[in-house]
Amino acid sequence: MPGQLLELHVENFRSLRDVTIPLGPLTVLVGANGVGKSNVLKVFDLLADIIRTDLEPALETRGGFDEVAFWGGPKPPSTLRVRLKGTWTIHSSANAPDEYDLKVRRYSAPSNRDHGRYRLTRSESFQFKRTKGRGRRITVSGARATVVDTRPSTKLEDSSEFGIQRLSSGLSTLPRLASAEGGTEVAMMADRLSSFRVFDVDVDAARLPSRLDHRYYGDLSSSADNLAAFLNFLNEDSALWGRLLDDARSVLPQLEDIQFAAVGGRAAQVAVQLVERGLRRPTPLADASYGTVRLLGLLALLYDPAPPALTCIEEIDHGLHPQALNLIVDRLREASALTQFIVATHSPALTDRLEPEEIVICERDDEGASLIPAITTDEVRAIVEESGDLPLGELWFSGVIGGDLTGDEL
């Protein structure tokens, strides 16, 4: 897969007081409701929003710093931090990864003109290799950005500075740097981060006809509200469509075919119809079951021929029959050759189908802080071996590798 996230570190974001999560092609967050799985996914939604709109608007959309910062403990935190390690740029590797580090600090307003509100500062750093043996670090603090080239053999550094707006994120502004100053590498990182998608099927919206807007024709929305148009797009590739249709039939035995019908009006729209065994007429997707719509939304996602760099999926098992889970896990592994997945679940049946290196056990302590991972992959492997290779879902649900079903998500 062309580049991927290797590690996520978060401090004081919602229930994530201090977590470091290793990430692979497929990472499944396993835990009860309220332990913080969704908050991990929301970190990526925040980063993508920072690139699209900048730092301050992204925080204000979520209610401001105090709303997104950790709520537990005796006093509110004054800093929020997100650090990523990945292999996005040309010369990066697992042993010499790219790094991005964002710190946001809250402090009290110094004068009455701020009407009692707090003020924010931010610092950022980008680190990546440019050529063999040579590294580059870009730091952003206040209204200054500093570019530093390091030559390891001599430990000499070349640096330059330039101005930047005080609260403007380097992710949204530094891609405009000249290539010689690192603009190309920062643009690569920002492009990857901005494409991150948190996917959660809005079943009511996905049931409806959708416009054939060719500007977005081949892009499945994060809520699948353009599911009909996207399935129609996939139908143009007969081999891909045949595989998707076979998968749908294997889980929905009454399904014979999926057809498309034009919907009249000022804007061209298309609707999905299901041809089902024994029925005289097709069933509009608007009348299909909740589970059927969610299944088709997930299959559309997993057969996307041009996915974003990272796809996060909320409660992937929700509304699905257990017999569909084997298929979904298989397709996730296949699709992870094109896009990295972070998936949240609390289903023992789905967890049964996973390997130890694919799961991250999530719990929460008495102060409201998420423990992610609650135990290491090596510990999971050791427990599986000691248990006589019992399924992971059974071990999790019984509490052997977690399974604490208490807590409310912040």
UniProtKB/TrEMBL annotation:
InterPro entries: ATPase_AAA_core (IPR003959), P-loop_NTPase (IPR027417), RecF-like (IPR014555). Residues 26-352 form the ATPase AAA-type core domain. It comes from the Bacteria. GO terms for molecular function: ATP binding; ATP hydrolysis activity. Signal peptide: none annotated. This is ATPase.
